[in-house]
Amino acid sequence: MTREEVFRGSGPTSGATVEVKLGAKKDGTIVSAKQVLKFQAGAFAGSPIGPGCMCGFALYDIPNVDVVGYDVVSNRPKVAAYRAPGAPITSFGVESALDDLAQKLGMDPLTLREKNAARNGTKTHYGPVHQNIGFTAVLDAAKSHPHWKSPLKPGQGRGIACGFWFNIGGESTATVHVNEDGSITAATGSPDIGGSRASLGMMVAEVLGVPAERVRTVVADTASIGFTFLTGGSRVTFATGMAATQAAEKVVDDLKRRVAMTWDIPVDAVEWKDGMAIPAGSNAGAFEPLDIAALALKAGRTGGPINAEVSVNAQGAGAGFGAHICDVSVDKETGHVTIERYTAIQDVGKAIHPSYVEGQIQGGAAQGIGWALNEEYIYNDKGQMENAGFLDYRIPVASDVPMIEAVLVEVPNPRHPFGVRGVGEVPIVPPMAAISNAIKGATGLRMPDLPMSPPKVRAAFDAAGK
Amino acid sequence: MPKVVISSGSACQRLTGGQTEFEVEATTFRRLVLELEQKFPGLGKQVEEGMAVAIDGEIFQDSYAVQLQPDSEIVLIPKIGGG
User: Fold this and answer.
1) Which of B54, B58, B62 has the CB atom closest to A313's CB atom?
2) What is the pLDDT of residue A247?
3) How close does chain A come to B29, measured CA to CA in Å?
4) Any CB–CB contact under 8 A between A126 and chain B?
5) Helix count (H) and strand count (E) of chain A?
6) Which of A388, A368, A369 is nearest to A378 (CA)?
């Protein structure tokens, strides 16, 4: 497809309206919340209204919640899944309203969120009970971060907003081969869009007890690996990682069996440690350790090639929470908003490859900054897109954003062997409200429409007589 | 028996004649789907094709073998994907 065809035919996320009403005591305890969401679906029903209804209040422990969602069919291109589908839209409304509530109550906006934060055991308004979540740990990290404590320069405003995404598991396949020279190949069916290949290889290396550089991780094609569900839903490091870990564990079991055969002792008398087989104790006998390379050389004699394949339908994906802090300055003459400082804090479970995890968070935040300030599909009165190209559809470039500091909070997910929870989608949820709240801090203006592009900001100044 | 809960006003409620809570004799997710279909024609199919379930708080998707306990609470929610 050409770039123009991608714009016209592959589907944006929904345009939407979000109405939020909050009821709170003077001490900041939120006692009721109401939300009406209208998501544009395009020509066919199927907007992400379901997650839109579930995500906005999932972060908070509110006893009375009423959410109504509409999937609105319209004469426009169909919408499609877009990073945490539905969640950024609903959270833009909720997190903006929370900021206004904090101001009305004279409370610090972070304190208001702390007071009402969901914890383990909190029953969400859509049914499930939160388990093993790290939202309060995220808020603690935000509160103690130097960004939150630092003074603002004159004319600047600071905003904070939070975000939630379920994360999913699903079907994944991985194979682990021991090659003739003792190196390892790990193959999975998950295309790598954020560093997952390195993370999967590291998990395999950890189980086998070998250096990560001894593992070559490849993305196998459909004919070469068992079925693997798509790369999406923040599922790959969790679900495919589970398959890869289990495949590596099967290889270790096989290696131990081969060592037991070689030493002529029971398999439970063999221990696998630091990439080598050793006797499990003095009663097992005295044997020199055998490493993977030595075992690979004799694989033919001990049963043939050493490999294992595991397919899973992974359940137990841990939900993710994030909090973003943003400082902005606003040019009153042009309406241009400059992001002065940006910090994104997130519970990532266990960061297998921390710099790739940071990259996911920075990418999500940058995508959200684009959504907040510039990106929009412009349609004519016939429902045809008029800005199908990057000259007219403006995404953020490097000069538009400062260094986004990613803070990794690690609350392990007990349903994954290494504690992994999905990371990739949460960071697009908070930016729009964080920036809107910062603009309000800088100017006193509540910007209720996205994107908060210069003409709209300038118009808001005009409307306010500023 | 496990208790099934659906959101008020959801499409499912139209299939249950307005009921939002009811009990179902089932020990696995697969049996749950079959029982729902028998009890409220169309509901089992809808759950199987377009919904996830939260069983005692934990979300499960597309997994026939998941076990239910006699006192389990099963909440029907939209299937969760991602982008």
Assistant:
1) B62
2) 98
3) 13
4) yes
5) 13, 14
6) A388
pLDDT at A441: 97
Q: At what angle do helices A241-263 and A196-208 cross, to 10 degrees?
A: 30
Burial class of A187 by CB neighbour count within 10 A (0 to 12, 13 to 18, 19+): buried
Smallest CA-to-CA distance from A228 within A212, A239, A214, A217 is with A239
A226-241 pLDDT tens trace = 999 999 999 999 999 9
> Which residues on adjacent β-strands are paired with residue A407?
A345
**Helix, coil or strand: residue A212:** helix
Residue type for A420, please? V
Q: How far apart are CA A52 and CA A71, in angstroms?
A: 10
Q: What are phi and psi of A371, to 5 degrees?
A: -60, -40
Work out the average pLDDT over A444-449.
Answer: 96
Give the mean pLDDT of chain A: 96
pLDDT per residue, tens digit, chain B (83 aa), is 899 998 777 778 889 998 989 999 999 999 999 999 999 999 999 999 888 898 888 888 888 889 999 999 999 998 888 77
- Order of all β-strands in the sheet with B58-60: B21-23, B3-5, B73-78, B51-55, B58-60
Q: Verify whether the Cβ–Cβ distance B80 to A166 is below 8 Å.
A: yes
Whole-angstrom distance, CA of residue A176 vs CA of residue A390: 42
- B20 burial via Cβ count (<10 Å: 0-12, 13-18, 19+): middle
- Cβ of B78 within 8 Å of Cβ of A84? The answer is no
Q: How far apart are CA A405 and CA B20, in angstroms?
A: 45
Cβ under 8 Å to A: B residues 45-64 = 54, 56-63
CA atoms A101, A104, A110, A112: torsion sign: negative
- Asked if A240 and A200 count as a contact pair (C-beta separation under 8 A), the reply is yes
Q: What is the b/e burial string over A381-420, where b = at least 16 CB atoms within 10 angstroms of the residue's CB?
A: eeeebeebeeeebbebeeebbeebbbbbbbbbbebbbbbb
Given this model, what pLDDT does residue B6 score?
Answer: 87
Q: ipTM of the assembly?
A: 0.90
pLDDT of residue B14: 87
Which amino acid is located at B50 in the chain? G
Task: Report the C-alpha gap between A166 and A54 in whole angstroms.
Answer: 10
Q: What pLDDT digit, counting tens, does each position of A15-44 carry?
A: 999 999 999 999 999 999 999 999 999 999
For residue A296, the 8-state DSSP code is H
Please check the confidence at residue A382 and state whether its pLDDT lies above 90. no
Instruction: List Cβ neighbours of A195 (8 Å cut-off, separation of 6 or more).
Output: A353, A355, A356, A357, A359, A360
Q: What is the pLDDT of residue A466?
A: 82
Which A-chain residues 299-338 have CB contacts (< 8 A) with chain B?
A: 313, 315-317
Whether residue B81 lies within 8 A of chain A, CB to CB, comes out as yes
Cα–Cα dist A296/A293, whole Å: 5
